[in-house]
Amino acid sequence: MPVVVPLITDAPPEDPAALDAALARLVADASARRPDAPPPGRTRPDGAGPGAPWLAVTSATAVRVVAGRVSRLPAGVRVACVGEPTARAAREAGWAVDLVPEHESAAGLASALPSDAGHVLFPRSEIAAPTLVDGLRARGIAVSEVVAYRTVGTGDDPIVLDPPPDAVLVTSGSVAQQVVRRMTPLDPRTHVACIGPATADAARAAGLPVHVVARGRSAEALLDAVVETLHPNPRTGRSS
């Protein structure tokens, strides 16, 4: 039976005025251009529109925070999402998603953005890695970053599960750190499953063993990987 143990949550930035100012500049920049966006709800996978400003988001939390501050994105804003789960949140917020990289990671997003992109705004967690910003600047693409939210722990008390879980699902480096803080030592039989290679690297850096790495950066892929590990098919070594 699955047990949900919230280890992290989000909190407003220390300086919300900086976020509001960055979003106001994005809206003003887009509104000053001739709109050439598709009808609402349509997706433009090629990210067409030379010089148009971009909004790059790497989490559903960033989508929620921005959508809560900007009721509707101007038609001239292009939206780039790190992966399908983030893109799904963006579409649910009413945004047209222009770009989802084939390689769903910050590095993949930095590589996939068109070279003629206009200024890119990256609203991020205060602990986000510099991968996206560094990658865009290395390509000569103008980008500004602003803290949209803080990632904080949900408490300090140790968490002991009885019986020990078969697997602990780690969905970010922040979760890995909280697992170490509040759930270790883990039972030797417990598998640590990570949502992707970057999270697996962060988990190892935090001191966790990594037994399972999902093939894709989605909850579905993570669950599939756990099932394949815990209940392998005796013929193929994979779940049926």
Determine the structural class based on helices, strands and strand pairing: alpha/beta
Number of domains: 2
CATH class of the largest domain: Alpha Beta
- Strand composition percent: 15-25%
> Biggest β-sheet: count, sense, barrel?
5 strands, mixed
Q: What is the CATH topology descriptor of the largest domain?
A: Rossmann fold
Estimate the mean pLDDT confidence.
Answer: 89
Assigned CATH architecture of the largest domain: 3-Layer(aba) Sandwich
What's the structural blueprint in terms of helices and strands?
Elements: E1 8-11, H1 16-31, E2 54-57, H2 60-69, E3 78-81, H3 84-92, H4 106-112, E4 120-125, H5 131-138, E5 143-153, E6 167-170, H6 173-183, E7 191-194, H7 197-206, E8 212-213, H8 219-230
Helix pairs in contact: 4-5, 6-7
How does this model look, in words?
Helix content is 35%, strand content 16%. It is built from eight helices and eight strands. A five-stranded mixed beta sheet has the order 1-5-4-2-3. The chain has a three-stranded parallel beta sheet with strand order 6-7-8, sandwiched between helices. Helix 4 runs parallel beside helix 5 and helix 6 packs parallel to helix 7. The protein is elongated, with a radius of gyration of 20 Å. About 6% of the residues have low confidence.
